[in-house]
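Quick illustration, no need to memorize.
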Amino acid sequence: STTQAKRTGSASRPSSSVRLMSASGVVPASACNQSRRSETRRRNASAVFADKATSTRTIPLTPYLAHLLATLPRVGPYVFAADSKTGHIADARDAHAKALQSAGVPHLTFHDLRRTFTTIGIANCGIDLFKVELLTNHVPKTVTERHYLETSRLQYLLPQAQQIADWIEAQAVVAKAAQQPAAQPEAELVE
């Protein structure tokens, strides 16, 4: 029922989880399964995500992402709660499919969203590859990255995350303007 959906927070989960993934480059398992409210910090605008290995990474949240997370219903300890044994969305594919259907998008994978975020960061914003990899919650690859860079608390990458968010927002404005009907010039009055 609608009341049940509002109480459990499932009504807004599909589009919210997909928006989080597309605006952060974080994959569904990290975004849904591991994200506890206690690890989402409003004060320093960050969220803790697990990587494929055994560690966690604190990723900076842009104001848009912080707002998105703040507007989600508060149900249980997880950001993306669900009526399940685990208490959270265990498999984001159903939510993703519902969001795509709602948006009228025929096919778009999680990794399409991640590749888009990465491409925007590198090609459109000129951000170094290793920084984009860290923002997308990839495990550091080089010896220097693993041993000499801060790779678990990434708040210092907020300017780069914001740069990507600003580029996405600018493109949304352009796309929205292109969808608006062209204004008709006013006819001149001839006496």
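Residues 81 and 88 are 4 Å apart (CA to CA).
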